[in-house]
Design goal:
six-stranded mixed beta sheet; alpha/beta; six-stranded parallel beta sheet
């Protein structure tokens, strides 16, 4: 999605302030409107954004002046961290690293956890729009029209960085591990072992991370001249305690051209698949090889140990905080996407 017109105009005016074209004051409203060829509403929105950043001061009947000093803010301004309640080590690490990188910058972190409910996520976004925070870091879970609208309103009041996954319909700054690249590397790792029948384990490939990991898997096979049939994709139900998963795994291994190696979208599914494979009498990695993307605390105790690509959570949060801080201090350049390479951890399943 392209930046709204007012954001592009905001950037243009900011550049003129920065290069000294508008040293002390801006031209009059009508002059600005004619100079940039924009509507009155677009210009008002751009000036609102610049004033919120403390870059200009509008004085009634006097004009629009370039601010000589940054707008004062509270001693420990608030940053909102909005996360889904997914639990585990990655969840706690995300919060811990947010504290670690925000505290030296004198920011105060307030964490909000979304319930298993799209409406609650939307309410938290709306609440952040109205509170006294000056920026937000957001890990989305649901992408409903109401949530997208709530995020758009939030973006009009303060800078937002999405992490790990994002709303497709709303373009913001984004920091995440390279899910596509990591999954491609995992598939290539198996291809180098002269394995061509490689399956993919996932639940819903319309979700951001799942989609990207599936794309990486497909890219690696396509580059190797392999066209994977749909039967190689093992689609788990949303309820991972569903007893039918064992039947699903059995069916995926019974056909003559069944895969003999699998890339799992996460370690939770990899562990479920691993246990089902062992119950069916297959040996891992001798008969079936498994590589997981990411690993949970439970996955760390798996036997055999999972071969996986790990997410460097600390780097994701470090970059997210750095990016958000730059926005708070007036960086009005276009949206940025920062993808961080995953770390390969060799285990015993591949």
């Amino acid at each position: 999605m392209a930046d709204p017109k007012y954001k592009k105009l905001t950037n243009k005016i900011f550049e003129k302030i920065k290069n000294g074209t508008y040293a002390d004051r801006l031209p009059g409203f009508n002059h600005l409107q004619a100079e940039f060829g924009v509507s009155q509403a677009t210009l008002v929105s751009a000036l609102d954004a610049l004033e919120k950043q403390g870059l200009i001061v509008r004085k009634r009947r006097q004009g629009i002046f370039v601010s000589k000093s940054p707008r004062k803010r509270s001693k420990n301004p608030r940053i909102d961290l909005i996360l889904p309640n997914y639990g585990g080590a990655l969840f706690s690490q995300t919060i811990d690293f947010a504290h670690k990188f925000l505290e030296p910058l004198n920011y105060r972190l307030v964490v909000s956890i979304t319930a298993e409910d799209p409406e609650h996520e939307q309410k938290l976004l709306t609440r952040s729009t109205l509170d006294d925070s000056i920026g937000a870091i957001f890990m989305p879970q649901y992408e409903t029209p109401k949530s997208v609208q709530a995020l758009e309103k939030l973006l009009n009041t303060k800078p937002v960085v999405q992490i790990d996954r994002r709303y497709w319909a709303q373009n913001t700054d984004f920091v995440a591990v390279d899910s596509c690249g990591g999954s491609k590397l995992a598939t290539q790792y198996l291809l180098k072992q002269h394995i061509e029948r490689i399956g993919f384990i996932s639940s819903d490939v319309t979700r951001y991370a799942d989609r990207k990991r599936f794309d990486g898997y497909q890219d690696a096979l396509t580059e190797a001249g392999i066209k994977p049939p749909s039967s190689w994709q093992v689609a788990f139900p949303d309820n991972l305690s569903d007893p039918n998963i064992s039947v699903l795994v059995k069916d995926s291994l019974n056909s003559p051209d069944a895969p003999r190696a699998f890339v799992a979208v996460n370690s939770t599914m990899a562990l479920i698949f691993l246990e089902a494979v062992k119950r069916l009498g297959f040996a891992v990695p001798e008969d079936i090889k498994i590589i997981s993307f990411d690993i949970t605390a439970v996955g760390e105790n798996a036997l055999p140990a999972l071969t996986h690509y790990s997410q460097p959570t600390h780097l994701v949060m470090q970059e997210a905080v750095k990016l958000l801080d730059s926005r708070i201090h007036g960086d009005l350049s276009g949206h940025k996407e920062i993808l961080i390479d995953p770390v390969f951890v060799e285990g015993q399943t591949a």
